[in-house]
């Protein structure tokens, strides 16, 4: 069937021709959306990125946002790292060439070979209709992007790389959305309000995997804070999702936010 005539196969999928920002769309429709719903568009015209930046999505970027409900507010700081793992697992399922090549760049990028393949914007909202804590997890994945044709230098997009340039086959967009949802729902369960011991909730069970996938660990880095830039060696991620940096004198400091780069 031509795309326009295809039925919406999934009750959870909201597929839009064009949309300013899938995250904003989902946040504005709190009452109409449920846990596990996804908002997808082929043309996002006014995307939002980390640190309040605009996020430009040329043709070929997969732009999608997922709604996750009943989250434990105390665990939210680790959610975007867990979402990064979901992105890695979804791609690896569908693109075997990428297996073991994808890395997490704290706090919310997925890298391959030190190039950005995907960015994540997790936003907590005031709640769904029942007042439960909700997060909208937005993912921009460079699926099949011709940066030159889009008039962009890949450096404009933060040293970006497109999946099609490194993989022998590129999965269908909706297959990717489906796999992303599968893993996000699985990981969201670890961040839910249901009573679980601390050792089994949030990032606790994911720490070995975070360590294995950490793009920065052991590397010299600089983290830009509001009033200063701090340099040291990345020493991993803790159970609260904080970046650990080893400073002069072997002192380890934990950072909750900031823009970090390799030096
Ligand atoms: C970043 O790298 O700064 C995060 C980028 C997140 C972009 C995605 S695209 C889908 C969703 N909708 C948005 O407006 N932003 C996110």
Concise structural overview:
The protein has 263 residues and is an alpha+beta fold. It contains four helices and 14 strands.
- Quick one: CATH class of the largest domain? Alpha Beta
Small molecules bound: biotin
| Shape descriptor | globular
Q: How far is the first residue's CA from the last residue's CA?
A: 50 Å
| Number of separate domains | 2
**Residue-averaged pLDDT:** 90
Succession of helices and strands:
EHEEEEHEEEEHHEEEEE
Number of E-state strands: 14
Count of helical stretches: 4
Strand order of the largest sheet: 1-2-5-9-8-7-6
Helical amount among residues, as a percent range?
Answer: 10-25%
Strand content: 25-35%
**Poorly predicted ranges:** none
What is the fourth-level CATH superfamily of the largest domain? Bira Bifunctional Protein, Domain 2
Rg over alpha carbons: 18 Å
Described by strand count, sense and barrel closure, the largest sheet is: 7 strands, mixed
Oligomeric organization of the protein chains: single chain
User: Under the CATH scheme, which architecture of the largest domain would be assigned?
Assistant: 2-Layer Sandwich
Class of secondary structure makeup: alpha+beta
Find the CATH topology of the largest domain.
BirA Bifunctional Protein, domain 2
